Amino acid sequence: MHQKLIALDLDGTTLNSDAQITLKTQQTLTELQNAGHIVSIVTGRPNRLSEPFYQQLGLTSPMVNFNGALMHIPGQAWAGEYQYTINKDIVFSLFQLKERFKIQMIAAEGKTMFLADQAYANTFSFFPTTLKSDEILTRESLRQDPAAVTVFVERADQDALRAEILRQFPDVSVNTWGGPASVLEIVHHGIHKATGLAKLAAHYDIDQSDIIAFGDESNDLDMLAYAGTGVAMQNAIAPIKAIADDITPLTNAQDGVVNYLRQYFKMD
């Protein structure tokens, strides 16, 4: 079979319910890479929380982080690297809106930056529960424009805060996270996972029809729509299943991605 680009979301997709890559997943993806296919991580996670999986899978392809705002090859300078940022004034504006909108935490991140205005006890370990002194977000410490700003806000205020951010800053996109947490994520306007996927395909000169992409949440929608074969996880939300070309028979907790790939590539 000629070369395919396999684009993988991490949480709820390639990672199991303990947010780990199983041995079967690792072995299958290694086999596919050795056969000449390109395996690439395309995730909403920051690079700091994706690189361990990248290393574990022994990948050499570029990785897409922050839902398309950053594409890079970990650990090396690469001419194709890009990072779309947003104006840091947005963060200062959020400081002013804290009281009015019951904002619980603000984090500003980029490829080489992680700052948060306070530690946040959270169940999904995306953010440290204690902050080092050089990780505290203030007017002084935020010296560069971030790739993504994450805002934890009480759910009752989520829609109103989103509308206020877009009113003040029309050149950004504001996405909500799936799952139990009430989170807004602010990125450069019009940037989503398909932005990174299109650049990956162009880098490898791979036709859109030869892209297979897997996802489960609303931030995967553009990526699955763009891919020649957009595959929704069995555990995906309904809108993702509705636009997908196919659905995995098994969930992420049952190695759904590699089960699908082994059948697709006739590996068993």
Structure explained in plain terms:
This protein has 268 residues and is α/β, with parallel strands linked by helices. The protein has two domains: 5-83 and 191-264, HAD superfamily/HAD-like (Rossmann fold), CATH 3.40.50.1000; 89-188, Hypothetical Protein, Haloacid Dehalogenase-like Hydrolase, Chain: A, domain 2. The chain is built from nine helices and 13 strands. The strands form three sheets. The protein has a five-stranded parallel β-sheet with strand order 2-1-11-12-13. Strands 7-6-8-10-9 form a five-stranded antiparallel β-sheet. A hairpin with a 4-residue loop joins β3 and β4 (70-72). The chain is globular, with a radius of gyration of 18 Å. It starts with a strand and ends with a helix. One of its GO terms (cellular component) is cytosol. InterPro entries: Cof, HAD-like_sf, HAD-SF_hydro_IIB, HAD_sf. It holds the Pfam family Hydrolase_3. This is Cof-like hydrolase family protein. It comes from Latilactobacillus curvatus JCM 1096 = DSM 20019.
